[in-house]
Amino acid sequence: MNAIVKNQMTSIIATVANDTPSFQKQDLAKKYELTNEMKTVKDLLSDRVRTIYRIRALRDFGNVKADDLGGFIEHEGNLSHEGNCWVGGNAWIYNDAYISDNAQVCGQC
């Protein structure tokens, strides 16, 4: 009985995965990229010098349009690709800071 249930579940999962590739691609698509524009900033807590990069939107979401320039982040772990969250203006996000959901951070918006 367990083997039958396991096989049925595997088939269901495979069917769902195969039936929705465009939905999955749309949902998991990156919404921004790091540009070549960068700054080096000194982390006041650790005295470590960090490199932060300006971001550019790759698609429309929330109030952000494709090709809009945003603020600066150190790495993609600072800003989620999900939701409508955004770092705008000249805001700097680095170290372990994480922006997600619908949070909007801006230096001068």
Automatic annotation (TrEMBL):
InterPro entries: Trimer_LpxA-like_sf (IPR011004). SUPFAM superfamilies: Trimeric LpxA-like enzymes. It comes from the Bacteria. This is Phage related protein. It comes from Bartonella grahamii.
